[in-house]
Amino acid sequence: MPRMTVNGRPVEFDLDPDMPLLFALREAANLTGTKNGGGGATCECGACTVLVDGAALRSCRITLAEAEGRFITTIEGLSRDRAHPVQQAMVAEQAIQCGFCTPGIVMAGAGLLTRNPAPSRAEIEEAIPNDCRCGVYPRLVSAIERAGRVTQRQESISAAPAPAIDADDAAQAVPALRVAPSSEEP
């Protein structure tokens, strides 16, 4: 049974190790912020992007076996109160339309800013190739630039509203997922 840490909690999936991480997160762990964009053979949309050991990766391309022993962060685990600079900047820059692609974009942006808190426009465009059918790209680049300034403490924003659903309420235990007991609450 594949074991990994998801959003800071050790978990063990009683699922086929060849299953894509995307489906384990969505179906077994009820972490539905990680979206299934349909992928097909190319898996290019990026809606399923999560952080794996801090790097933005597409969860439809990673099997549970490949995720074994790694640290996975989904949009639900990025910030419990939506205070992450990328989340704040996406709202402040009005870089969200329908919202379907937003979690993957936020995760790709968070991964980029972890590596490079002051990326150029070209570096942002390269690091976030996610598909957005609503066409928010110009505002998206501005949002990531702004989030970088927030990360560097050159600016502050507080644009995102409080979440309507607590992450713990959303991630209810199901038979295929075992959450290891924790001695500390997050």
Automatic annotation (TrEMBL):
One of its GO terms (molecular function) is 2 iron, 2 sulfur cluster binding. Signal peptide: none annotated. Pfam families: Fer2 (PF00111), Fer2_2 (PF01799). The keyword Repeat does not apply. InterPro entries: 2Fe-2S-bd, 2Fe-2S-bd_dom_sf, 2Fe-2S_ferredoxin-like_sf, 2Fe-2S_ferredoxin-type, Beta-grasp_dom_sf, Diverse_Oxidoreductases. It comes from the Bacteria. The keyword Transferase does not apply. Residues 74-145 form the [2Fe-2S]-binding domain. Residues 5-62 form the 2Fe-2S ferredoxin-type domain. Keywords: 2Fe-2S, Iron, Iron-sulfur, Metal-binding. This is Isoquinoline 1-oxidoreductase. It comes from Erythrobacter longus.
